[in-house]
């Protein structure tokens, strides 16, 4: 009697994961009430995220580790690789880049020229940088300096700026803020060649400026996210959660197809292949929505 | 029983929609409103497709509708959560 109960129990567990040849139904874990349960997990996660914003600000966030020194290093590495001379970090160009980033947050726009017609060169001239040539690259929502430079390298118009012979100096602004309702990090890269060549920054000027940036790292508003004390990266947590549940559901659907064919179970249900196509679409959508940043 | 060709045509609707959806999604997700519209459009399309498909097959019943509805809700909630984090 006990053995019979054990067998029944095992069969019950088995049909949580595999379709039932008797009832001709899908695995229990693929029933509609379980899909509502999986949806509930996501809603609970969203609730936790929103609660943590007010209860424990700074615990969850978008971890990014973008440093001016690394942006400079990666940019110059790419230039050298392409047979170009290294650019020197210029304080005026960097301050112009910071001002441009702050201006984009202030006016809530994401473009080279603002809706009121303010051009990038306004910020460069405003810092007293009299240029013969100037250029601008922009990036947002990236996690690391490497990803930012890679994205510029992968875009032909940005790559042109990166390896142009017209420039001698460079400046970076990495500023955190809220744009279009999103907490984000903007990176502004200014290139320049001063009209007066005697005013070109030296390596010593560059080192001094980088040192001053490190000293200012306690200033919450300026530059790199080094000073942001994010404990958990919300997008990474979501990625693990979403892809675990989606992967689990997709695996159950694949088992469903395999087991039904093997045991010739003709279920009166929806089309598993259509469900799998939709899961594939969701995965692609998540990759798009959670992908790293944009450049213009 | 409907022909294999008709099935293929109906499935190709999903495939074409997914390609168009992903392309549009990658181009126009700069703001929250468009993310929300996209989060609704994919599951809504799937639900409507399933109703039409099973109706033409003569297999549309409450159980099948509930199955597609629950999966559509699941898809919407995932995309909605991704848009809101």
Strand order of the largest sheet of chain A: 2-4-5-3-7
Number of helices of chain B: 3
User: What's the overall average pLDDT of chain B, rounded?
Assistant: 86
Structural class of chain A: alpha/beta
The string of secondary-structure elements of chain A, in order, is: HHEHEHHEHHEEHEHHE
Low-confidence residue ranges of chain A: 220-228
Task: Give the N-terminus to C-terminus distance of chain B in angstroms.
Answer: 46 Å
- Overall geometry of chain A comes to elongated
Oligomeric status: heterodimer
Query: How many strand units of chain A?
Result: 7
Percent in helix of chain A = 40-55%
Largest sheet of chain B: none
Sum this structure up briefly.
The complex is a heterodimer of chains A (296) and B (85). With 296 residues, chain A is α/β, with parallel strands linked by helices.
Verbal overview:
The complex is a heterodimer of chains A (296) and B (85). Chain A is built from 10 helices and 7 strands. Chain A has 296 residues and is α/β, with parallel strands linked by helices. The radius of gyration of chain B is 15 Å and the shape is flat. Chain B has helices spanning 4-27, 32-57, 62-84. With 85 residues, chain B is mostly helical. The model of chain B has no long low-confidence stretch (mean pLDDT 86). Chains A and B meet through helix 2, helix 9 and helix 10 of A and helix 1, helix 2 and helix 3 of B.
